[in-house]
Design goal:
With 691 residues, the protein is α/β, with parallel strands linked by helices. Helices cover 41% and strands 16% of the residues.
Length: 691
């Protein structure tokens, strides 16, 4: 029953003006609207089709045919690199030369009816669909003569992919027919945003074409569908169906449940209504009785599995709301889900609705790993971990009663044991600080504190023989060995390493990549902090309450990423920047679109006013179009960052978050700094510090 998540999808929308033709006054707006729908994570679910630093919505008066071809070529390479489906949209003036049937798109250097200076759309589509690594191509063409866009089938049947190409096309008009005022693109955007009734979870070429034919007068909307890859996970689709994405089931039933039941029941009996997800499960139970009246077979079994999943999900949401009551918060739901998945090397799927109890339960039930028969194992682990976070006793009879209702007593018993083991693994933590430097950035000695259940139980100092990066890394490894000795004595695992680093080394040092035998970032969750908070001057102490309040605001954010992004020009005038900080202009986390270079003073200025500072780790920077990845994973930070680093080291695609560095001075760290200053521990020698 696992609902397969779509692979990566890229989009490139191209809309050139042609000076030799009548100006299309609606072109830019139509292109932007279509791009917005295709890039919407809940609809088209597309990432930018060009690499970082390049716009994937290209329109205007200066786009030449050569530049257009180059952009499409770059998009093809980018999609192949990430094994993505590529959505290409072409809007503008088009012609079919003479009596031919081949569509040419007109650009800044084009003349009507002349092939030179125009672009053969069919050739570009063949190049994209036949490129190894590109997981299918969807073309959207809004021009006159649009039906001339499909290439010859013979060109798709051979080539580098051995005939396993996939190409779907949606076209505004027939060959020889005009396309009026970009009405096709604007109507398509409306359909994508509103969805269509009764067709399932996604909008394919055929269903969308039929819907547009009913909306457009005087234009014969055309379609083309070529799919010769029998190993593809799913058919090509333009967007998710907003009618389903808006929550077909309502109540306690989630989006994935709605998608699965809509498709499964439609395949078995189109007249059978999809039951709602109300806490009162009578409608779902009645539907199950009706299903059992159909003859056995794969379609009936799929529908029964989907319905049973809905019943499990509804009963679970009802249970955790009634059992955990006032202790159930969004922060606890998010933390529990992330900690559970991250422990298994997983992260929640992009675009999934994880911010509510309904969304999380829906995801666990309907998107379980292939290795699991159903989602009950993950569901049991999530509920027991959540109960622990909320302070509930895992032996509570109510938990056992819920296990019986969802027919998962063994899974819940296993989950209780698993939760106990995880709790032991979270008790120890090691803090290592470089705050004691007397000259320069690298100290002569590092301080280490071993924490048990949040309280310091041991303190030790570790000399840095050379007072440079190499010496600091060696001292950190000594601290880790010291902490591991204590961990063995306590019979508890050590999983977390917090490093407090001065402003200068923060700009160049990647301590998670240190380690002689194995990287520290593989062995531990490494989190970076600003060491000046351990020994603040008077000015820094005066604004500590402001920083603490800003952390609370960041932690409670439920909307978009709570980060104020600063461009390079925002940082050039130090006095002006400090003035903005003093009046509270940047009241959230702060992100830098470019690396700050070697400017440690700038880092100190910013970190004094914010508990969270992000900056890119490469010269390419972190422009606005790349920030969607942070929007997706913000709630899982900073753990998501540590996970992204591991993914990149292992060569896994899609670890784009790994291009960022972060100082993350959360509530725990701020409290540790305050407590350490108010109750300093005595310095002990190595003999005292060993077990």
């Amino acid at each position: 029953m696992r609902r397969r998540r779509a692979g990566r999808r890229h989009v490139l929308v191209i809309a050139p003006q042609c000076p030799s033709m009548v100006r299309l006054t609606s072109l830019e707006d139509a292109a932007a609207g279509l791009y917005g729908a295709l890039a919407d994570a809940s609809l088209g679910a597309c990432e930018p089709g060009l690499p970082a630093g390049r716009r994937s919505l290209i329109s205007g008066d200066d786009l030449t045919s050569a530049a257009l071809v180059e952009s499409v070529g770059a998009a093809i390479d980018h999609a192949a690199e990430h094994r993505a489906t590529l959505v290409l949209a072409f809007l503008g003036h088009g012609f079919a030369a003479g009596r031919t049937s081949t569509l040419h798109l007109m650009c800044a250097d084009s003349t009507d009816d002349l092939r030179h200076g125009s672009v053969n759309i069919g050739e570009l589509l063949v190049r994209a669909a036949d490129h190894p690594g590109v997981d299918g191509v969807l073309g959207i063409v809004d021009t006159c003569h649009a039906a001339g866009a499909p290439p010859a089938v013979a060109d798709l049947a051979g080539g580098a992919r051995g005939g396993r190409a996939r190409l779907g096309l949606l076209m505004a008009s027939s060959l020889g027919q005009p396309a009026v005022d970009l009405a096709f693109s604007r109507s398509l955007t409306a359909v994508l945003r509103e969805g269509l009734p009764g067709i399932g979870a996604t909008l394919g070429v055929a269903a969308t074409r039929e819907a547009l034919r009913g909306l457009l007068v005087g234009q014969n909307v055309s379609g083309f569908d070529y799919d010769a890859d029998g190993a593809a996970d799913e058919p090509l689709w333009i967007a998710r169906n907003a009618r389903v994405r808006q929550g077909l089931l309502g109540g306690f039933g989630g989006v994935l449940a709605g998608e699965e039941l809509t498709e499964a029941l439609a395949a078995l009996d189109p007249a059978m209504p999809v039951p709602d997800g109300a806490p009162d499960v009578r409608a779902a139970l009645h539907c199950r009785v009706e299903l059992l009246r159909h003859p056995p077979g794969p379609r009936r079994e799929r529908a029964l599995r989907g319905l049973d999943g809905l019943l499990v999900a509804v009963r679970t949401v009802d249970f955790i709301r009634s059992w955990l009551g006032a202790d159930l918060t969004t922060a606890r739901l998010r933390h529990t889900l992330y900690s559970m998945l991250a422990a298994e090397g997983r992260l929640p799927a992009a675009g999934a609705p994880h911010l509510t109890d309904v969304g999380i339960i829906d995801e666990l039930v309907f998107n379980h790993p292939d290795t699991e028969r159903d989602g009950r194992r993950d569901l049991a682990r999530f509920v027991t971990l959540l109960a622990q976070v909320c302070g509930r006793d895992p032996g509570d009879p109510e938990l056992r009663a819920w296990a019986a209702r969802i027919e998962a007593p063994v899974e819940v018993n296993d989950a209780i044991e698993h939760t106990a083991r995880r709790a032991a693994g979270q008790r120890l933590g090691l803090v290592v600080s470089l705050h004691s430097s007397l000259i320069g950035d690298w100290p002569e000695v590092l301080d280490g504190w071993l924490l048990l259940d949040g309280s310091v139980i041991h303190h030790e100092q570790f000399p840095s023989d050379t007072a440079d990066r190499t010496g600091a890394e060696n001292a950190v490894e000594e601290a880790v060995l010291w902490a591991e000795e204590h961990a063995r004595t306590l019979e508890l695992p050590l999983r977390r390493l917090d490093l407090a680093v001065p402003s200068g080394p923060l700009l160049t040092w990647r301590p998670e990549e240190a380690g002689a035998a194995m990287l520290l970032g593989i062995r531990y969750d490494v989190h970076l902090h600003w060491s000046s908070r351990l020994t603040p001057d008077a000015a820094l102490r005066s604004i500590e309450p402001v920083v603490a309040a800003r952390w609370e605001s960041i932690a409670e954010c439920r909307g978009s990423t709570p980060v104020d992004w600063l461009a390079h020009e925002d940082l050039l005038d130090a006095a002006r920047l400090r003035g903005h900080l003093r009046v509270g202009r940047y009241a959230r986390g702060i992100g830098l679109s470019r690396h700050p270079g070697a400017d440690a003073r700038l880092m100190e200025t910013l970190l004094a006013y914010t508990p969270v500072l992000l900056w890119p780790d490469s010269a390419a920077g972190f422009p606005e179009e790349r920030r969607a990845v942070l929007d997706r994973d913000w709630w899982a930070m900073p753990g998501a960052l540590a996970h992204a680093y591991r993914q990149r080291w292992r060569g896994v695609d899609g670890a784009d978050l790994a291009d960022l560095r972060a100082v993350w001075d959360d509530e725990q760290w701020l409290r540790f700094c305050r407590l350490l200053r108010t109750a300093p521990l005595p310095v002990r020698d190595r003999a005292e510090g060993t077990p």
